[in-house]
Amino acid sequence: MENIKWGELGFAYYKTAFNVRYHYANGQWSQMQVTDDEYIKMHMSAACLHYGLEIFEGLKAFRGVDGKVRLFRPDENAKRMINSANRLCLPAPTVEQFVEGCVECVKRNADFIPPYETGASLYLRPTLLGTKTCLGVRAVDEADLIIFCAPVGPYFKGGMTAIKALIMRDQDRAAPRGTGDVKVGGNYASSIWSLEEAHTKGFSNVLYLDAATHSKVEEFGAANFFGIKNNTYVTPKSKSILPSITNKSLRQIAADLGLTVEERDIPVEELATFEEAGACGTAAVISPIGALYDLDNNVTYDYGMKVGETCKKMYDHLQGIQYGRVEDIHNWNVEVIM
Ligand SMILES: Cc1ncc(COP(=O)(O)O)c(C=O)c1O
Fold this sequence. Notes:
The chain is α+β, with helices and mostly antiparallel strands.
């Protein structure tokens, strides 16, 4: 085991021992390669550097209460990466190849998987890059799939805390028929300005509205939005939202816990009716939302800075499954035999 100050880890790059790579050329993927090299040598004219032909994924491995190591739903990340690759006309890995690469990355970096008691985890970042040289815009048929990892701290160090966010109309994250529903680097590039704007104004994140009408709730920064009212879990349905695997899991957990689940349009005004609101994603599982500020209309949607009961219950349940404390009745975990 590495001598790592687990308690001090945040969400940042951390050098581990190995990463896993595959190269696609001449119509096929190479065998898996394992390397300790943190750098990539590619041509300065590679398509990913100029035209954003780049996609990625994010998932976690957890050392459980029983000492077992589990990857959470890697097959879902694989399917999402395949969708993203198809959208950018990049060579797509198979589900088996993606999961095999993730498992190997975890095994090779066993010393970097945080101990159970720390509440930390191992974050994996599979990245697919169009590496073919080109000057003109076109689809490419050469790519690298690189899977690296980093130990990351628990998102909430001193217990769950609620956040304040800004409702954004000055920048849209994704067009109605753009790439919002796939995990391409360009989506993050095109929303970085609004995130900085929110930070400057003292908010920790941004709630985006639908780009066509600015009347419906869409993505919450790099996470999905949900609201709770009348024992119902409500989350927006839109072609420009990334299908979050955490949200998919929470919808199932909400149903298992006896809540009604609704995936539908959420008009901005409906924000006033929620008893609790949250953002969900791999990094935090759930970030409770304390308040949303609509500065354009001078309206605040206040949910209180005390973490809501339903958010807490769903968070505990999902983390319980990930750390092996709660029975995994839907078979979401993939155990990594070390
Ligand atoms: C834009 C965006 N939405 C939602 C999510 C949450 O997705 P997941 O739960 O699969 O991590 C992420 C993180 O991957 C994201 O970047």
